[in-house]
Amino acid sequence: MMTTDVVRVQRGTFLKEIAQLLAEHHISAVPVVDDEERPVGVVSEADLLRKLLGLTAVLPDGHEQPRVTEQRRVRDDMRKADATTAEGLMTGPAVVARPLWTIVEAGWVMEVRRVKRLPVVDGDGRLVGVISRSDLLQIFLRRDRAIREEVLEGVLTRTLGLPPSAITVDVADGHVTLSGFVERRSVIPIAVRLCRDVDGVVDVLDRLEYGIDDSQDVGP
Fold first, then answer.
1. Which one, out of 95, 114, 133, 148, has a CA that is 20 to 30 A from the CA of 210?
2. End of a domain among 118, 140, 162?
3. Which domain covers residue 27, as residue numbers?
4. Which of 35, 51, 50, 38 is nearest to 84 (CA)?
5. What's residue 218's pLDDT?
6. pLDDT tens, 145-167?
7. Residues 184 and 123 in one domain
């Protein structure tokens, strides 16, 4: 799902150049990398707009000291107000993902860390791609026909070795219904689990029948 042709900038890249890159490539943020292509932060169009408008956090009124998190945010905004390069404006350290993460893992990290995109890094920490919220949403826009083909041909036929004529697969808005006949009952939960892992599948309804109930452990 990740984008591998990643637009990136260096710590010393000037803000005007970053703005030009965002506009030219129709993107909303760029990762900042060090000399070894390791992400150290991210600069977004929101960061640039705040810099352009001269917006900084305002300390709360009253005698109480602001909370630690508020103090950090104020210091961070003041630092960004004086920034002229990516290093000064970026939000860091970068929150990153790994290539073998599942879509669920990436989405969970985005939600918890409140970020809209994740640089993807290899085992050495070098940038190999970027995944964004819009990339994740593409899964739910996948056509039912494509989902049906992968479930029937990829999961049921190739992976489980089931005859395609024995099972009917119906897909409507990502909801998969399996009906038909399998020889052994133990195959059914495996089939359902594998079908749920197919990109674009929202849920799986099991209407399968079986010939032999081998789901119970046989005692000595």
1. 148
2. 140
3. 9-140
4. 51
5. 43
6. 989 999 999 999 989 999 988 99
7. no
